[in-house]
Request: fold
Amino acid sequence: MAATIDIEKEKHEILNKYRGLLRACKSDRSLEDTKMIRKAFNVALEAHKDMRRKSGEPYIYHPIAVARIAAEEIGLGPTSIVSALLHDTVEDTDLTLEDIEEMFGKDVVKIIDGLTKIEDIFDQTSSLQAENFRKMLLTLSDDVRVILIKMADRLHNMRTLESMRRDKQLKIASETLFLYAPLAHRLGLYAIKSELEDLSLKFKETKVYTEIEQKLRKGDEVRKRFISRFMLPIKRSLEKAGFEFQIKGRPKSVYSIWNKMQNKDIAFEEVYDVFAVRIVIGSEEESEKADCWKVYSMVTDSYQPNPDRLRDWISTPRANGYESLHTTVMSPTGKWVEVQIRSKRMDEIAEKGFAAHWKYKGEQQDHGLDEWLNKIREMLEDGDGSALDFIDDFKLNLFSDEIFVFTPAGDLRTLPQSATALDFAFDIHSQVGAECIGAKVNHKLVPLSHELRSGDQIEIITSRKQVPKSDWLNYVVTAKAKSKIKSALKEQKKKIAADGKEILQRKFKSLKAEWKSDNITALEQHYNIPSATELYFQIARGKIDLKKLKGYKIKEGVLSFPKSTFSKPVEKLETLVRKFRGTSEQLVIGEDLKNVEYKLANCCNPISGDDVFGFVTVAEGIKIHRVSCPNAIQLMSNFAYRIIKARWKGKEELEFLTGIRFGGIDDVGLVNKITEIISKESGVNMQSISFDSNDGIFEGKVMAYVNDTEHLRALMSKLKKVKGVRSVDRIEN
Reply:
């Protein structure tokens, strides 16, 4: 390979990339900054000189690309650019943090240290990705630049994912969709969030991605002509009013279109808002709000708006700093068109994220970001549950839409959508939440589980005698409330368990059994209880009656039970993974695999020909899931070390249960035609079939056994040809 590398050409390319980086941060650097960036480039170039990426390119291409994304697409300053250039040096080369500090100072070393910690935790495939994410957020709450550079690093890795193995592509794409894209959204990095989602979909569901992309490209010219005609009367009004403006007409991201198709169960052609028109005006900050409403008035003078689709994020910006006015209007051709109205300042924040725009350009401190980081710190301090619960809470609270509610004194508070009166109580103060017995919403008494809406005014009623109950966990959605309730329940449980421990100690004394861990463990195994605390708790609650203790023996103070009462020891997960993986690292479904128990997952019903993977479970052997399974993203993100590559054996004649959903216009004899096709023409073994007709529209569902994806496609193709049938889809889960 070495003989085919053109070293001179590579040197020239490296220099070109470096010049491109300098151009990207032109407006933001002094002569001193340029020297520092040049020095960082030289250090990185020397440190990575013998390293190459999986694609065969020199490794230095990567840090330069990351630094350029940080400068150009996120808007970070010279310190961050220097850090991005050096971000892999401590991890992958002989350079130490001390060396970096000596050459570039404390700020840079702090960022590099944070990035190195993230690399350390994300490379350990044996540990949970969710736990790693929690640790990553600890670095985020210290210095947001760490996570912004990590975001740039992930974006470049996703852009160059082609050279990776298929299983690595799936793992990285799932992790990106599960953690990084929502985090980009929460930091206001909309352009990066959309690209991360699109690239994840491209590698996870290549066929789906390609189809949507081709359809978007195909309609590009038509779309441009439509936008041009649509904007003509608005343009005239804007020019007449003397506005400085720019019009952007861009299609929605492939991922957001695919998401809409999935959620609403519609075809691409039925997604009405595949593009949005954006009007960006050049207004001064003090007059931009009034100007945006003037433009809104011009748009609605020309076209009829949909009153349900007005979104005012100028009066009340979103928690990530996003400000914009959105309306959906009816065009002359009968199509709904989304129009976004914002100022240049708002547009820059929307594109690059307010974290970079405010925090590090030194214009002003931003209250919203600080508030968000404080929420993260609070969650991290309280996070004593499982890492997966933490992730769910984190994603729900920090990446969801917000509602705005008021205290009795009129103070505005932001909560995630679906928050309840009890969430509000905990948001006011932990003690208020713990002692909450009810609430008044808009002066009416409501239960604790009452879901709040934007604009509600809430008064909390408390009592000193109240204590949190376990069913409260079903009433709350915020991480703070869940965490405080769990802590209180744990404390209550500890007190009850202490009584149970005393009861057991007295029992041991009367049995002349020694009070030691082996005896406690023997009881835990006998009653199939996971921990000593749980054992004591069950005893105190009377769930375990020690008087009825049977079959035990005591010899020299040691308690033992007949072997038959012990549950079968569970193999360690690592042992299971090794056993199932064997030497091939791949599971071939359909082969006579000795000692390997595998099942097809019910959540996605995979069939022969589907792109699949194996997931090692402790109790049920291997579960086979489709790559497009609704649970795949979470499994691949959090349990990468338990994922096994899997493929179907060539010509194995097996039958798989799958579902087909179809719909259309009701017609005489339609049910009969469909049943005939399924049962006779395709030789398919039907398990169940159901039809539902309403006002001339019918929907049907069939569960049937097929051989493989080809067999399924052939059947669906025949059903599509039946007169009156408008849609035929495989039931995904």
Observations:
- DSSP finds 28 helices and 22 strands in the chain.
- The longest strand covers residues 656-665.
- Confidence is low (pLDDT under 50) at residues 121-128, 359-366, 564-574, 580-584.
- The first helix runs from residue 7 to 24.
